[in-house]
Write a structure and sequence with these properties.
The complex is a heterotrimer of chains A (about 1050), B (about 475) and C (about 220).
Chain A lengths: L9 H13 L1 H8 L12 H11 L1 H6 L10 E2 L14 E10 L2 E10 L2 E7 L12 H4 L1 H5 L9 E2 L6 E2 L2 H17 L5 E6 L4 H13 L4 E5 L5 H11 L3 E5 L6 E5 L10 H10 L10 E6 L4 H5 L2 E4 L5 H15 L9 H5 L9 H17 L3 E5 L5 H14 L6 E5 L8 H13 L4 E5 L3 H4 L6 H6 L3 E6 L4 H4 L3 E4 L8 E4 L5 E4 L12 H8 L6 H13 L3 H10 L1 E2 L5 E2 L26 E6 L13 H5 L7 E2 L4 E3 L1 H7 L5 E7 L2 E9 L7 E5 L6 E3 L3 E2 L22 E12 L3 E2 L8 H14 L2 E3 H6 L27 E6 L8 H9 L7 H6 L7 E7 L7 E7 L8 H5 L5 E3 L5 E3 L9 H5 L6 E2 L32 E2 L5 H13 L12 H5 L5 E5 L6 H7 L3 E2 L11 E4 L1 E3 L20
Parallel strand pairs in A: 7-8, 7-15, 10-11, 10-13, 11-12, 15-16, 16-17, 22-27, 24-26, 32-43, 33-42
Antiparallel strand pairs in A: 2-3, 3-4, 5-6, 5-17, 9-14, 14-21, 18-19, 19-20, 22-30, 23-31, 24-27, 25-26, 25-30, 28-29, 33-40, 34-35, 36-37, 38-39, 41-42
Chain B lengths: L11 H7 L12 H13 L5 H27 L14 H12 L2 H11 L6 H25 L25 H34 L3 H11 L6 H34 L11 H27 L8 H32 L2 H12 L3 H13 L7 H4 L2 H28 L14 H24 L5 H6 L2 H6 L8
Chain C lengths: L9 H27 L1 H4 L13 H7 L4 H4 L14 H8 L10 H9 L5 E2 L12 H6 L4 H5 L16 H9 L22 H12 L13
Classes of the chains: A alpha/beta (about 1050), B mainly alpha (about 475), C mainly alpha (about 220).
Chain lengths: ~1050, ~475, ~220
């Protein structure tokens, strides 16, 4: 990060904290039991911890204490009751992404939120979170966040404040009130918040003629339209994969970027352990090679436009196999599409097998379909659920007609009237329409035509720059709110610190525009009271739990009268041939979603689960497509849709549908910040903006032409930094089967312990006398059968262990710092049909650790409980340990990666560090510690309570966040522990155990459940293919 | 005032004809002429132009080295190309390279001395000098390659308030002891041999300053029989002490690799293989230095064609030893049936770093084969070029061992290509700057040939014993 | 030509030279080790505090218990520095307008913290937990010395790693009944080792020497 020009000086920053401390709302917060904003409470600990981070480099480089450095302790003037300095406190809250809430629990030290976990009480979360939630703590301390009200009248940036704005708003909106809001438009991000909805209603009551338009680039409007065809009202499918024997997923990343991915993953995992009940079988048909496709037992790559035809073909096949009827009668079978891709053996066999599978599973089958599909296709897919009778068992449809939605027609109308100059005043309540509106609307230009443009946002972003007023928005950790989760559970969001930069929430701003004074909290509480009845204790309990009541959506159980559907739109049946137009589809990005998280260094550096790309998106296409176009990974291509051009770098994605291109959204930001791109400071944007190619009539997928520009672009991934040569491919193929042990269900049934006999080696004899472990014996187990490769563990670990971000060029050099990395391999001889497999690898805490033996200064040693302790302050950085580690999980600080904290304006980053973990300086090695700080914390707790540590007391960050609960941690000396059972499991194996390292992390072999008629003779990875 | 014209110029051919084994020096030479031709270099008012040019270049690179190290220490190890998985890059390659070169010296002086190889006398002095300087270069690299050089003293077992000792199981620690011991002994050995010659220079010195300096270092040597008697006894003992070190040092260096369990490193052949390689590269470097030196300072009658030919024979022999090691390594990798080991060697020969591997093989194994021919063995240009080849080849051997083994080890997910940075390159060149600066200073101010010892092997000496009065 | 001779007296220098050559390195190492060791660097550090608070008066003469002010010492890692209101609990009545308490009253009024100067300062990569020690019967005095006799607090023990290990390796002589933890005048009848051994047995005390005990 370069220096932050927009930031205030450090001193003013600290002064502002002083002010905060004595602010009435602070006192009030403290008085209440959920204090906010005391990252200013200068207890000895927080002060010391703060110095610890600031002076980390000095501190680490000096062996003895820094006597010459005079430290002062600033205790509370008045410490609240039972406020224990340095003890973490936990607050329930929630965050909302694209109109769907997630229930969270925030860990906060001395008032500084440092870690976010899922809310165990919430059925969808059960303690897990998305990567986006994990990155929340970095988000709130992002130095690039807007730090004050800006007036941009006359094109020049003049710092202002809320008082000025309020004064301005009084006048402006008084006038508008007179005209009932004629010429006033509100662009609001999609939200489920009842309190915001209430605010909106009161606003519209005051300005009846105003246009209120919701916009979100990832809104699931198609799904609503599709279900409306079936049920007559917008419905939302809530899936229960735990009940499904057969799952068919159509063009949807159900376990990845789907809003309810956590619940889906949990359900999926419940049915993927062979020893626990009947295994489910997952079929997916998709254009992109998504994470969900990666874990499927059978996968058919098809262009998005062909899914409709596939469905009809499937229905007719089911009819032919009998015991299945559709309202259209047999007719459909006759009119069923033929030829094209259906002529290919693979597709044909796939459909036959799938049909019989669905018919045998009947009501225990589940069909999920993606929002990119046309409404008719979505309707047809869900109708299949109804016809198979799975409604109520594997899928429930919720009535969401009351929720705010994005109506693309309204959006188009608004853009038009703006162009006409019919709009005088526009207010964007968060969101970033100037950036993420479909290209065909020419929104930026239209926006410019409006006289008064008010923008509320956490960042002074693309829209902010184009506005006449910019207002800083409060982060979700800084404000009150209430959200509904996917299944309609009511969740409460409470602030865990005072707004760092005086930000306000959307509801507050509406309050200002309406000239009302009540705080957002009181609004939230009012709405809550209306729904659940008021009462101090009830309210307190709600705030404590963070979730309230059952689903507020009604179930649609009644079977719709008329299930007949119009014939699916004629699909392009033809298999793609070189020269034909390409089909580009737009996908939510696993790292930055639609661009709203773009400025988070953690997320930018988090490798995409499938491409492993960092700091960039790319045009994903099949190897054969790339060959046909004469391009390869890194080649720049100009894509053209309806005359709108955009240059994007190609990424060759094995298993992608031929002739289709997937464009992840959310990159190419020009005003995001010093991480994702900032024109003011000449920070080049990360990745490529694909919104210009998006059409408001085709938000899902559309046809495009592409031409290679001849230039090359450096795409950086954490795996295969360079294309792997033939020898490499062969070498990889030879060993892959031993590293990631995989087998079909049938194979497992024959030899449950096949994984343990995969590798044959001579008897293992140790050079040294082996360790004895009287006390605890910490160990981990990772179940490859349930791991989906979502990579949440990587980012949870980053948040917990103060792991630095190194930047694109360093990642390219191979110097990324992730302590737990998600290895991803593609298997299969034909690149176009490749299967993906994932394996999370962190320090295996070997009992005979190769690293320990070679360190000349004993900086990494063996603990009495079997951990490889890594002592940063003893390390001199010979890097010998890293060489000798067969798993290559050790990470070296080639530079001081925390220097950014010392940059003016960026000090705020230090507040987000975990005070229980040393911040590493340059020249020292680091690695996974099994979260030893959490082990110690539990030990202290047990000591105080005069008891032993129980199984389950300790959960490492990776295990805690895992949506499929694939990671277990515990004590091998405790016969009742889960991890002990896992290690005893037949599927358990030690990766590279033949080296006699005795790793403490056991992997459980991955079991696939292919359909008998499609089973391959040898499911062992023969040969890993390019781009691995 | 002596100058170089004082020495009678003879062509190699002429000199050679005059040499009849075991005669190693032109028969008609008097003891005094030896003294003359050696000391004259140090006594001359100005060295030959070539010396100033060479010295200028060397010092420039020394400066660059300083700058690079400053940059490194202030910025971080990241200025090099090192990464994950190649955590050891050029610094360690250079370290092993220089330690290897530092071998010939002690071998020639000690081992050949014990084996009564008279011919060593012509070259042992600057071979030893070369050893000292090479080890200085070598010692520098492990020191600067660590991440936190300011706490590097933790590798020494010094009592401290942390109650911490170094980890005596770590080969790196053994290295620290092995190399420092080797350096100390070599230094003593070299200085010991210098004493009589320093005395000679002291006695010939004209200016007061020189008298004092040479005098101080001559430790009051007066060449009495008693002194000679003890001197030779002590020299013998030191030689006996130094000999095992020749084997030990590079064996220990090889442990850095052999003790680890990385495919390509974890092999038992490493110690002998490394020692052979070290002698190989050491002799090559001796050759690279001897050829120009004898030309420049007119010592052809002392460092005769016979010396050079013998060196060439050693180079060829050790070259083939090294070649055997390469072959055997690869064979064992295949024979062991270990898939990781096997892959490493296929990957070396045909993977991304194949070019490095084949440079190594052609320079180290193929090029010395030319010495089968007497003509080639006795041709100055050929032997010079081959010696340069061998130096290059041996550097690449270490590159192949360190980088190709690391860049593709067990888990394919962490495979990565290593690319050096400009800092890597300049640091290596800088180390040559350091080496040559020291060496040129030595050539200028100290006797490059062990006069006293040479006199020992002159026919005259055998006629009527060593006569030291002759000098005064 | 005449052989150059050093003057006779230089012979006497030779032994001296030898001594220096051998002695210098040893001496240098020694002096640095001694100078840099916390025993000499840290012990006795006695900064002036913004408020002339006397532990001798409060903890000594008045015999107040440490835990009255350092409230969290038993339940948390940090023995919190008392907040101003704890001072004011008494000083609203006692010496309500003594000039020496000016800063305290000011702080109480404005809410601005009193900037105490840290005396016992461990390196930032060391994680020490008060509760774990206090609960196991390690007296305040073991690390902080006779606080009750200090007019101005000073560092009494080196707080160096070796010093910590001494106790972790051989805790017996440093243990006392948990009830006596804050008692500065506690005297052990009989052998401290024996009592220590009993206490260790009773309270199940296994001081760990793993690196991760203090370094994470």
């Amino acid at each position: 990060m370069s220096s932050l020009e927009r930031s205030e000086s450090t001193r003013t920053y600290w002064r502002s904290l002083q002010h905060l401390e004595n602010s009435p709302e602070y006192q009030e917060m403290v008085a209440k039991e959920f204090p906010a904003g005391p990252e200013t409470n200068w207890t000895d600990s927080s002060r010391r911890r703060f110095l610890q981070i600031m002076g980390a480099s000095l501190a680490l480089s000096t062996a003895s204490s820094c006597r010459w450095q005079k430290e002062t302790l600033a205790p509370f003037a008045d410490r609240p009751e039972n406020w224990v300095p340095g003890k973490p406190r936990h607050y329930a809250t929630s965050m909302e992404v694209a109109g769907v809430g997630q229930a969270l629990v925030v860990t906060s030290y001395d008032g500084r939120p440092t870690k976010i976990e899922g809310n165990k009480n919430h059925p969808a979360s059960l303690g897990a979170t998305s990567s986006f939630a994990q990155a929340g703590t970095l988000g709130v301390y992002d130095p690039d966040r807007s730090r004050g009200v800006l007036s941009l009248a006359g094109g020049k940036e003049t710092p202002s404040d809320w008082k000025n704005f309020t004064a301005f708003a009084k006048v402006e909106f008084a006038a508008l009130k007179a005209s009932q809001g004629e010429g006033l438009a509100i662009i609001a991000p999609l939200t489920s918040s009842p309190s915001l909805r209430a605010a909106q209603e009161s606003f519209m009551a005051a300005f009846p003629k105003a246009q209120w338009v919701n916009w979100d680039a990832t809104a699931r409007s198609q799904e609503l339209a599709g279900t409306e065809i079936l049920f007559g009202k917008a419905a939302r499918p809530v899936y229960d994969l735990a009940k499904a024997d057969v799952v068919l997923i159509l063009d949807e990343d159900l376990l990845g970027t789907h809003p309810d991915a956590l619940r889906n993953s949990r359900g999926y995992a419940a049915r993927r352990k062979p020893e626990v009940g009947k295994m489910s079988r997952v079929w997916s048909v998709e254009s992109n090679h998504s994470l969900t496709g990666g874990i499927s037992d059978h996968r058919l790559p098809l262009r998005s436009s062909q899914i409709g035809a596939f469905l009809v073909a499937l229905e007719s096949e089911m009819i032919q196999q009998g015991r299945f009827k559709v309202p259209e009668g047999k007719a459909i079978a006759k009119g069923a599409p033929k030829g094209g891709f259906l002529a290919e053996a693979k597709a044909a066999n796939f459909i036959t097998a799938l049909a019989s599978d669905l018919l045998s599973a009947k009501k225990n089958s589940l069909i999920a379909v993606g929002n990119n599909q046309p409404a008719e296709v979505i309707a047809r897919a869900h109708r299949l659920n109804i016809l198979l009778g799975s409604v109520g068992t594997t899928v429930t449809y919720k009535d969401v007609s009351t929720l705010s939605t994005v109506d693309i027609n309204q959006v188009q109308a608004l853009a038009a009237s703006m162009k006409k100059g019919a709009v005088k005043t526009v207010v964007t309540l968060g969101g970033n329409p100037v950036y993420d509106m479909p290209g065909d609307l020419g929104f930026a230009e239209a926006f410019g035509k409006v006289k008064t443009r008010i923008h509320l946002g956490q960042y002074f972003d693309e829209t902010g720059v184009a506005s006449t007023w910019h207002l800083p928005q409060a982060h979700f950790l800084e404000s009150w709110s209430d959200n509904l989760t996917w299944d309609g559970t009511w969740t409460l969001a409470q602030p865990t610190l005072n707004p760092l930069w005086g930000g306000r929430s959307a509801a507050d701003v509406i309050g200002i525009l309406l000239n009302q004074e009540d705080s957002h909290e009181s609004r939230v509480r009012k709405v809550w009271a209306a729904a659940f009845g008021d009462g101090e204790t009830a309210w307190r309990k709600a705030v404590q739990l963070g979730i309230g009541g059952a689903s507020v959506f009604a179930d649609l159980t009644a079977r719709p009268k008329n299930l007949a559907l119009p014939d699916a739109t004629p699909a392009t049946m033809a298999v793609w041939k070189a020269g034909a137009a390409l089909e580009v589809s737009f996908a939510i990005d696993a790292s930055v979603h639609d661009g709203r998280f773009a400025n988070s260094g953690w997320l930018q550096e988090l490798p995409d689960p499938m491409t492993k790309l960092t700091w960039d998106n790319g045009a994903l296409m099949a190897p054969s497509t790339a060959d046909a176009l004469g391009v390869t990974t890194g080649s720049m291509m100009t894509f053209t849709v309806d005359g709108r051009n955009q240059d994007i770098a190609v990424y060759v994605m094995p298993g992608h549908a031929k002739g289709a291109v997937t464009l992840p959204m959310g990159y190419g930001r020009t005003e995001a910040g010093h991480v994702a791109g900032l024109s003011a400071d000449r920070v080049t944007p990360a990745g490529f903006d694909v919104y210009p190619l998006r059409g408001s009539h085709a938000l899902g997928f559309t046809l495009a032409t592409a031409k290679a520009t001849g230039e090359d672009y450096l795409l950086v991934s954490t795996q295969d930094h360079h294309l792997v040569d033939e020898i490499g491919m062969k070498g990889r193929g030879d060993r892959l089967g031993d590293l990631v042990r995989t087998g079909d269900l049938s194979k497992w049934e024959e030899h449950p312990d096949f994984a343990q006999h995969q590798v044959h080696h001579p008897p293992l004899i140790s050079l040294w006398e082996e360790h004895k472990y009287e006390g605890h014996r910490w160990a981990m187990s990772i179940d490859l059968s349930t791991c989906t490769g979502c990579s949440s563990c990587t980012i949870a670990c980053q948040a917990e262990n103060n792991i630095p971000v190194v930047g694109k060029s360093e990642v390219f050099k191979g110097r990324e710092m992730a302590w737990i990395r998600m290895d991803r391999y593609f298997i299969g001889d034909d690149p176009d049909e490749a299967e993906a497999t994932h394996q999370p690898v962190s320090c295996q805490q070997c009992e005979n650790a190769p690293c320990e033996q070679v360190c000349p200064v004993a900086a990494t040693t063996h603990s009495s409980e079997g951990l490889n302790d890594m002592v940063y302050n003893r390390c001199i950085g010979t890097r010998y340990c890293a060489n000798n580690c067969p798993y290559k999980v050790r990470r070296f600080n080639f530079f001081n990666n925390n220097l950014v904290v010392e940059e003016e304006g960026a000090e705020v980053l230090a507040l987000g560090k975990n005070p229980e973990v040393t911040v590493r300086s340059r020249g020292v090695m680091e690695k996974c510690t099994y979260c030893v700080q959490r082990i110690q914390a539990s030990r202290y707790e047990a000591t105080l309570e005069k008891r032993e540590i129980q199984d389950g007391d300790i959960t490492p960050a990776c295990a805690q966040v895992c949506p499929t609960n694939a990671i277990h941690f515990g004590d091998l000396n405790d016969d009742t522990s889960v991890v002990k059972a896992d290690h005893a499991n037949d599927r358990a194996y030690a990766m590279l155990g033949e080296l006699n390292n005795k790793p403490r992390t056991a992997f459980l072999a991955r079991i696939r459940n292919p359909h008998p008629s499609l089973v391959k003779h040898d499911s062992h990875p023969k040969d890993a293919i390019k781009h691995g | 005032m002596a100058d170089f014209t004082a020495v009678k110029e003879l062509t190699d051919a002429q000199l050679d004809d005059l040499v009849h084994p075991p005669q190693l020096v032109q028969g008609t030479e008097k003891f005094h002429d030896i003294t003359e031709s050696v000391c004259v270099v140090a006594e001359a008012h100005r060295a030959p132009k070539a010396w100033y040019v060479a010295f200028g270049i060397a010092v420039t690179f020394l400066g660059i080295l300083g700058a690079m190290i400053f940059h490194l220490v202030t910025t971080g190890v990241g200025v090099w190309g090192n990464n994950q998985p190649v955590a050891w890059g050029w610094p360690i390659v250079n370290f092993v390279f220089w330690v290897g070169i530092g071998h010939a010296g002690t071998l020639i002086s000690a081992v050949l001395f014990l084996f009564r190889q008279g011919w060593r006398t012509g070259i042992n002095r600057f071979a030893e000098a070369m050893t000292i300087f090479a080890v200085i270069c070598a010692g520098m690299f492990p020191a600067i390659h660590v991440g936190r050089i300011w706490v590097i003293y933790w590798v020494f077992p010094i009592p401290n308030q942390m109650d911490m000792w170094p980890n005596f199981r770590s080969p790196l620690l053994w290295d620290v002891f092995a190399v420092s011991t080797y350096f100390t002994v070599s230094l003593l050995f070299w200085y010991m041999g210098l004493v009589p010659d320093l005395a000679t220079q002291r006695d010939r010195a004209k200016t007061k300053l020189r008298k004092m300096l040479y005098g101080a270092f001559a430790l009051g040597w007066n060449g009495s029989n008693r002194q000679w008697h003890r001197y030779e006894r002590a020299y013998l003992i030191l030689a006996a002490l130094a000999t095992p070190l020749v084997l030990s040092v590079h064996s220990v260096v090889s442990f850095d690799f052999a003790i680890s369990q990385l495919p390509g490193w974890h092999t038992t052949i490493f110690p002998p293989y490394f020692v052979a390689g070290a002698i190989f590269s050491g002799f090559a470097m001796v050759m690279t230095l001897a050829v120009p030196a004898r030309q420049l300072f007119g010592l052809k009658h002392l460092i005769t064609m016979r010396h050079l030919e013998l060196i060439n024979k050693v180079i060829m022999a050790t070259g083939m030893l090294v070649g055997y090691a390469y072959a055997m390594e690869a064979f064992m990798a295949w024979y062991s049936g270990n898939k990781y080991e096997g892959f490493t060697f296929v990957n070396r020969a045909f993977g991304p770093y194949a070019w490095a591997y084949w440079i190594m093989v052609s320079c180290n194994v193929i090029s010395p084969q030319i010495f089968w021919f007497k003509k080639a063995r006795r041709s100055i240009p050929i032997m010079f070029i081959v010696s340069i080849f061998v130096n290059i080849g041996m550097w690449f051997e270490r590159f192949v061992i360190v980088v190709t083994s690391l860049n593709r080890d067990f888990l394919p997910s962490s495979w990565n290509y290593f690319t050096p940075t400009i800092v890597d390159l300049l640091t290596l060149m800088g180390s040559f700057g350091l080496f040559f600066t020291l060496f040129l200073l030595f050539c200028r101010w100290l006797p490059q040939v062990a006069m006293a010892e040479v006199k020992n092997v002159m026919p005259a000496a055998h006629a009527h014993g060593p006569d030291h009065e002759e000098d005064q | 030509m005449s052989q150059y001779q050093f003057p006779r007296w230089t012979d006497k220098l030779r032994p001296l030279l030898a001594v220096v050559a051998l002695g210098a390195p040893v001496y240098m190492t020694g002096i640095v080790l001694y100078g840099a060791s916390p025993d000499n660097l840290s012990v006795g550090y006695k900064p002036e505090q913004p408020v002339p608070f006397s532990h001798r008066l409060h903890a000594g003469e008045l015999g107040m218990d440490c835990r009255y002010c350092h409230t969290t010492v038993e339940k948390a890692g940090h023995a919190a520095i008392p907040s101003t209101n704890i001072c004011m609990n008494c000083h609203v009545n006692i010496h309500p307008d003594s000039p020496r308490l000016e800063k305290v009253r000011e702080s109480a009024a404005t809410g601005e913290p009193i900037p105490w100067v840290r005396v016992h300062d461990l390196p930032d990569f060391v994680f020490f937990n008060h509760s774990a020690h206090v609960q196991k019967g390690v007296g305040c005095i073991e690390c902080h010395g006779r606080i009750d006799q200090m007019e101005v607090v000073e560092q009494a023990k080196p707080l160096s790693m070796g010093w910590c290990l001494d106790c972790h390796r051989n805790p017996e002589p440093h243990l006392r009944p948990v009830a006596e933890v804050t008692n500065m005048n506690w005297m052990c009848e009989g052998s401290r080792e024996e009592l220590g051994a009993q206490l260790r047995e009773a309270n199940n005390i296994q001081p760990r020497q793993d690196c991760s005990t203090c370094h994470r």
